[in-house]
Design brief:
The complex is a heterotrimer of chains A (745), B (292) and C (165).
Chain A lengths: L5 H6 L14 E7 L5 E8 L9 E3 L24 E2 L5 E7 L5 H7 E7 L6 H6 L10 E9 L11 E9 L11 E7 L3 E6 L4 H12 L6 E5 L12 H16 L3 E4 L2 H7 L6 E9 L5 E13 L5 H11 L9 E9 L13 H19 L3 H6 L21 H12 L1 H11 L5 E14 L5 H5 L2 E6 L5 E4 L9 H13 L6 E3 L18 H22 L9 H15 L2 E6 L8 E2 L4 E2 L4 E14 L4 E12 L6 H20 L5 E2 L2 E2 L18 E6 L16 H4 L1 H13 L5 E2 L3 H8 L17
Parallel strand pairs in A: 1-12, 8-28, 10-11, 14-15, 18-19, 24-27
Antiparallel strand pairs in A: 1-5, 2-4, 2-6, 3-5, 7-15, 8-13, 9-10, 9-12, 13-14, 16-23, 17-18, 17-20, 21-22, 23-24, 25-26
Chain B lengths: L8 E3 L4 H10 L5 E3 L5 H6 L7 E4 L9 E3 L3 E5 L4 H5 L2 H6 L1 H9 L3 H6 L2 H7 L7 H6 L3 E6 L2 E6 L4 E3 L2 E2 L6 E8 L6 E7 L10 E10 L2 E10 L6 E2 L1 H7 L6 H14 L10 H22 L4
Parallel strand pairs in B: 1-3, 2-3
Antiparallel strand pairs in B: 4-5, 5-10, 6-7, 6-10, 8-9, 11-12, 12-13, 13-14
Chain C lengths: L10 E7 L2 E7 L5 H8 L18 E4 L2 E4 L12 E3 L12 H9 L8 H14 L5 H7 L11 H16 L1
Parallel strand pairs in C: 1-5
Antiparallel strand pairs in C: 1-2, 3-4, 3-5
Helix pairs in contact in C: 2-5
The chains are: A alpha+beta (745), B alpha+beta (292), C alpha+beta (165).
């Protein structure tokens, strides 16, 4: 099935928000904090700019509540008295000529009374400066299973480790952008590059003090998102809306790359501490896991990222007992946010590095330690969710090892590594990823999906689920077409517009194909049933007969629409207090294998071959599914080896594509993708969500491979050549020339 | 885009004389722009101080490549693509065409020019070490006439050149005398393409019976200017390549270079890799000798 | 701010875009990218970075692949420019566009116009490219969605389709 909107994309006809203009439109820009934390003392509008030409908006102009409504509502839309991170938005400017804005932004001078600021998780934990709440802690979870305190004395080995992951920028190639308009008769309209129209809708209702039917949000073609356009668009949309309300004109705000990188969300940095009791065979008896993430200055989505990181911290293994203590702490950094994987890549990196460590301590192979601990059908996860489906992780591992030629390579590399400056290694990661919202989350989302048939027999899917490259349009149309027995060409999908489509939930959490897809299936089936009940259509029919039936139905009954609402499977048990029960409706399972070359002349690591094998329930669209995996693996390789955010007091210094490094076409290995399909009762056609799964495996597999190649432990990513150099050192005794402070800028 | 185009003047006189006259009439007022791959990045970021630019992209005299028996003369506005596709430059000066292939992706190679790279004077530029080992000579031109300067004297300090306020680089000429040398170059960047170098080596060596007859080593990104390792070269010339010599070479490299730590890398890493690259070249030279 | 600096005047610029002669008034230092998008309404070329790193603004200028965000429009005066809008003829997709659709070469689509033009440029120079040629030819075009694999497939497939014609 070709991509539904593919033709527009390959001809340049696809319309992204910056491709659109409205008559009389102004351009907007944001004046941002230059300090990490402080009180705003004065704001002055400097000379050299005719301020009469500009629309100016401050916090005082906010009609509703000065916040970006999300979970805790602690993040202001515009800082009023206090700023809590560098680049925090303070005021907004608009002008008809885009080119006049930069000078104007620079001509606004703001005086601050700086306050002590916090710039690391450790500093935040120390609590010598409190920057959020009473104790800098945005959220905590505690998961307890079995009797952890009893396992230590039985352990043959107690293995400890500490693991770190850095911030990562989503780096969608299309920067954040929005157009807002305000009409007194109809209210606020937003056209944006976004994942969740209804999140923006909710946020703007509160900000602009407008009721539901006076806020309209339309998703434009979106050039990549990866979570970076999950919650952030509410902020930029809020800004454009405020300018539109004040000026009475449409306002477009498009960030350039430098602004997008320095001011918007990134992946939460993390620190994980493992302490694990294992028996003499390497079987886990129990353990303690402490997982901490840096949430930045406001709570935003940290509680949910923390949740997923917490639940995935034990990976695809059986823990007879475990204590998982997790927290998100505040620092004076632009709030960190959603990025594909959403906490799981962080805690799974730590776990999969730790499994290799356990193997070393026990004296068995990384393969064997995993075999001995894999979850089996009927066993429970760390949250005591019983694995109902038939899983065979052993078999999955076997297949991955075979596909990657693991055994032969491991032997050969060990031989070849004895000499020369090129060292090769091979490493694996085994993991899982839960699809859909956690626990009762899907019930809370209460998603609603519509399908409509026109008098011409064309069927339209009505969802708020956004397309941003991952294939929403294609897969949902495929599902509807299949449910109705119609050609794919006869099914269309409405542009997500809150005036037109119901709230099928946000386009996040790998839930679209699986959960929304299932609802599309039932809503589509509902169309068929309605026509059958009216006697207009039999059980089997041609597309032509379908068209005629629709025409007749509409002529006598009016619109032909069918809706389907999410119903949670009856026996789902989830305890939000104890964080226990059935965390996810479905898990996808995977084993990834990375082969690397370490060049000791340049200390650089190259990935030469990558095998990505996963069990995903059902592959709905082979081309799209493969594309999700290769794209996710590429981002995982970036996470591991290339993408470092250089911070200085909460500000990103390398906020340009020239010095924030993502892989190019000559940096990536062949990424070989393989699927197994064992079905899923909760997903459309048995599909499980796969969008985020590929983000979890590459980094630990690669770092495991680097340790295999060099014999050196690395427990922190990104792992740059400079880090490898410091660890491997210069063995020829010239280190005196390389004193730590020599030549430092 | 952080600049207002209305604030900038760009004139395109279209011929060399007119360009030179303007530079003479208003010295230091007009910034020459060829392919724009450096200037336009600064401009877009709102960081270009110059408000007046003079277009030298299509000046014919700056685009010529002249092949003479003893030298090749490359017009300053020749693009990296033009260098790469020139048969004789590729054969006689492989370090230059190799560096050209490393300078950005194809789109940037189609617009980036050798003269622009030289005038921009970044110590990280990929092709400048090659020019140093090839003993390049620059022809500088103004209304006052032409003068030739050895390229190795052109950089006075970080991003400072000896170009006069009214001068333009006309061409870069390279002596065709390196057929008997083993060429070697390596660039170390943050990724394999579109990367500013962390360390960059261009080297030529002549070796007979394992004894170094002539050695030319130039590094980028280890000093405020593209850097020819004269002390190390002198230390090694006339000596038989052996592990002890290679160790001595490493020590000498570390003593000679002055790398810094910056947003891209650390001083220690640059130093270590620079020494490794030189050692790697010497080991290769010892094994392969010179291509006779 | 130096108030004695005069504003530059707009000048006549004319070029051939996708086979059609176009002229307009523009400041000489306007970026070709902005002139194409805002002056001529050809919004296929995109701004991803404004620094010549991502290639999503790529167009063909006198047959050469360039980053239009780095070209002052004055330097394009008199040139022949091809943008993504000029790649399909009469609603018939080119082999490259066809191959991108078949192989999944476009996901979010924002890098796609530039990527296709880079591929056009590559195939003109190397009609039967090896994988290493494809990788090198596209090294200046960043894609965040695909991990490049299906783009390589699409280009290889397009090469086949073109040779077959």
């Amino acid at each position: 099935m070709p991509r539904k909107e593919g033709r527009d994309k390959v001809t340049g006809a696809a319309r992204y928000v910056d491709d659109m203009a409205l008559p009389g439109m102004l351009h907007g820009a944001t004046v941002r904090s230059s300090v990490a934390r402080g009180k705003i003392k004065t704001i002055s509008f400097g000379p050299g700019v005719d301020w009469n030409e500009f629309v100016v908006v401050t916090a005082k102009d906010i009609p509703g509540k000065n916040c970006i409504a999300l979970i805790l509502d602690d993040q202001p839309c515009l800082a009023a008295e206090n700023v809590n991170h560098p680049e925090e938005p303070i005021l907004l400017l608009a002008h008809a000529e885009r080119h006049k804005l930069r000078k104007a932004v620079e001509a606004v001078s703001i005086d601050y009374e700086p306050l002590p600021s916090v710039h690391s998780m450790e500093d935040s934990e120390r609590k010598s400066t409190i920057i959020w709440g009473n104790d800098n802690i945005l959220k905590r979870y505690l998961v307890e299973k079995g009797d952890v305190d009893a396992v230590w004395k039985e352990a043959a080995h107690i293995v400890e480790g500490e693991y770190f992951t850095g911030a990562q920028e989503q780096l969608y190639i299309e920067n954040n952008g929005v157009i807002a308009a305000f009409e007194p008769e109809s209210g606020v309209t937003i056209w944006g590059s976004l994942q969740c129209p209804y999140y923006v809708h909710k946020a703007l209702m509160a900000l602009c003090d407008q009721p539901e039917d006076r806020v309209r949000v339309v998703q434009m073609e979106t050039g990549g998102a990866f979570g970076g356009k999950e919650e952030y668009p509410s902020m930029i949309a809020g800004h454009a809306a405020l300018l539109a309300i004040k000026s009475g004109k449409p306002v477009k705000i498009i960030y350039d790359r430098m602004e997008d990188m320095i001011a918007t969300t990134k992946r939460h940095p993390s620190r994980t501490r493992h302490r694990t009791a294992v028996d003499k065979n390497g079987k886990i008896l129990g353990g303690e896991i402490e997982f901490t993430i840096d949430g930045g200055a406001y709570a935003t989505l940290s509680s949910v990222v923390l949740s997923r990181g917490t639940i995935h911290a034990g990976g695809p293994y059986y823990w007879p007992s475990v204590r998982i203590r997790t927290k998100a702490v505040a620092t004076n950094t632009p709030p960190h946010g959603a990025f594909r994987g959403f906490g799981a890549p962080q805690s799974l990196f730590a776990l999969e590095r730790h499994m290799d460590r356990i193997a070393q301590v026990v004296g068995i192979s990384p393969i064997e330690v995993r075999r001995r601990n894999f979850l089996k059908t009927g066993q429970t996860t760390t949250t005591e969710q019983t694995i109902q489906e038939n899983i065979d992780l052993d078999g999955l591992l076997d297949r991955a090892l075979d596909l990657s030629n693991y055994d032969a390579k491991k032997k050969r590399f060990a031989e070849e590594n004895r000499n020369g400056k090129i060292k090769k290694g091979i490493g694996i990661a085994a993991f899982l990823h839960g699809a859909g919202f956690t626990g009762s989350g899907e019930r809370y989302l209460n998603s609603l999906v519509g399908v409509e048939a026109g008098a011409d027999g064309v069927v339209r899917v009505l969802v708020s689920s956004a397309e941003f490259g991952q294939g929403t349009n294609t897969v949902l149309c495929q599902i509807a077409a299949e449910a109705l027995g119609l050609p794919y060409e006869n099914v269309a999908i409405a542009q997500p517009d809150t005036n037109v489509v119901p709230n099928s939930g946000p386009t996040v959490a790998s839930r679209t194909a699986m959960i929304v897809g299932k609802l599309v299936q039932s809503a589509a089936t509902g169309i068929k049933e309605t026509l059958a009940k009216s006697g207009l259509l039999g059980e089997d029919y041609t597309p032509d007969q379908f068209r005629i039936a629709c025409r007749e139905y509409i002529a006598s009954h009016g619109a032909l629409k069918s809706y389907s609402r999410y119903e949670s499977p009856g026996n789902v048990y989830w305890d939000d207090e104890k964080y226990r029960g059935e965390a996810y409706a479905a898990f996808a399972w995977a084993v990834y294998v990375a082969e690397v070359t370490v060049d000791l002349t340049t200390y650089s690591v190259t990935v030469n071959d990558f095998v990505a094998l996963q069990e995903v329930g059902k592959v709905l669209n082979p081309v799209l599914a493969e594309g999700q995996i290769t794209g996710g693996v590429a981002q995982g390789i970036g996470f591991a080896l290339y993408e470092k955010v250089v911070w200085h007091d909460g500000r990103m210094l390398n906020n340009q594509m020239t010095n924030y490094i993502m892989p190019t076409s000559v940096d990536l290995p062949p990424i070989r993708v393989f699927f197994e399909e064992h079905g899923n009762v909760h997903g459309a056609h048995g599909a499980k969500g796969i969008g985020e799964l590929p983000m979890d495996g590459p980094a630990p597999a690669i770092v495991n491979a680097v340790e295999d190649a060099t014999g050196v432990r690395f427990d922190s990513i990104p792992l740059l050549p400079e880090d490898l150099f410091e660890a491997l050192g210069d063995k020829s005794g010239e280190r005196d020339f390389l004193s730590p402070t020599r030549g430092m800028a | 885009m952080r600049a207002d185009p209305a604030d900038y003047k760009l004139v395109s006189p279209g011929n060399l004389q007119a360009v030179l006259s303007l530079l003479a009439d208003e010295p230091s007022q007009w910034l020459p722009i060829a392919g724009g791959t450096d200037v336009m990045v600064l401009y877009s970021a709102g960081k270009l101080p110059n408000r007046k630019l003079i277009d030298i992209w299509s000046i014919p005299e700056l685009r010529q490549i002249e092949v003479l028996p003893e030298r090749i003369r490359i017009g300053a506005a020749c693009t990296y693509t033009a260098l790469r596709s020139h048969e004789i430059i590729s054969r006689d000066f492989p370090l230059l065409t190799l560096a050209a292939s490393w300078t950005g992706g194809i789109a940037n190679q189609n617009r980036g020019t050798l003269g622009g790279n030289i005038a921009n004077a970044s110590p990280a530029a990929d092709s400048l070490p090659a020019l140093l080992v090839y003993d390049a000579e620059l022809t500088l031109i103004s209304v006052r006439g032409q003068r030739r300067v050895p390229y190795r004297t052109f950089h006075a300090g970080y991003k400072k050149t000896t170009l006069a306020a009214d001068e333009l680089i006309l061409d870069i000429s390279l002596p065709r005398q390196f057929a008997e040398y083993a060429p070697h170059a390596r660039k170390v960047g943050a990724r394999n393409a579109q990367a500013i170098s962390k360390v960059c080596l261009a080297a030529l060596g002549q070796c007979a019976d394992g004894v170094i007859r002539d050695l030319r080593l130039a590094l980028g990104s280890v000093a405020p200017v593209p850097f020819r390792l004269q002390e190390t070269e002198q230390l090694l010339t006339g000596i038989k390549i052996a592990p002890s010599l290679i160790n001595a070479a490493r020590k000498s490299v570390l003593k000679e270079i002055r790398p810094i730590g910056d947003i891209r890398s650390t001083a220690r890493y640059r130093a270590a890799v620079a020494a490794n690259l030189v050692a790697e070249f010497l080991e290769k030279l010892a094994v392969e000798g010179t291509n006779a | 701010m130096n108030s004695s600096l005069e504003k530059s005047a707009k000048r006549d610029v004319s070029f051939i875009v996708n086979g059609e002669e176009r002229n307009l008034l523009a400041h000489p230092m306007e970026r070709l990218l902005d002139v194409l998008r805002n002056g001529l309404g050809l919004t296929g070329a995109k701004e991803g970075c404004g620094e010549g790193e991502c290639g999503s603004c790529s167009v063909l200028l006198d047959g050469m692949l360039v980053n239009s965000c780095l070209v002052p429009v004055a330097q394009a005066n008199g040139a022949s420019i091809i943008t993504i809008e000029g790649i399909s003829t009469h609603d018939l997709l080119s082999p490259l566009q066809q191959a991108f659709l078949e192989c999944g070469g476009a996901q979010c689509g924002i890098c796609t116009p530039g990527m296709i033009l880079a591929a056009v440029h590559l195939l003109e120079k190397k009609p039967e490219p090896a994988l290493s040629d494809i990788r090198e030819g596209l090294a200046g075009n960043l894609c965040r969605c695909t991990g490049y694999m299906q783009i390589f497939e699409a280009v290889a497939r397009a090469a086949q389709l073109r040779m077959a014609k």
